[in-house]
Write a structure and sequence with these properties.
It comes from Dactylosporangium darangshiense. The chain is mainly α. The chain contains two helices and no strands.
């Protein structure tokens, strides 16, 4: 680190593109759910795919609630 480079904490860094992240999470959840339609025979794959999509949707809902209440 040079002596002229400012020191920043993680909360001072600019966030990325939150709208793109939300759209990406929604599209990823839809892709995971579409992967349940396939030629696999067991249900374990379906459980993991649905759980992964559910976690993404839960994160989207949590983000929506925080933004609605003014928290980021």
């Amino acid at each position: 680190m040079s002596e002229h480079e400012p020191v920043t904490s993680p909360d001072q860094l600019k966030p990325g593109h939150p709208r793109a992240a939300r759209i990406g999470a929604a599209v990823s959840a839809l892709i995971l759910l579409s992967m349940t339609i396939g030629n696999h025979q067991g249900r374990i794959e379906d459980i993991f795919l649905i759980a992964g999509a559910g976690l993404l949707v839960l994160a989207l809902v949590g983000d929506w609630v925080l933004r609605r209440n003014g928290l980021r």
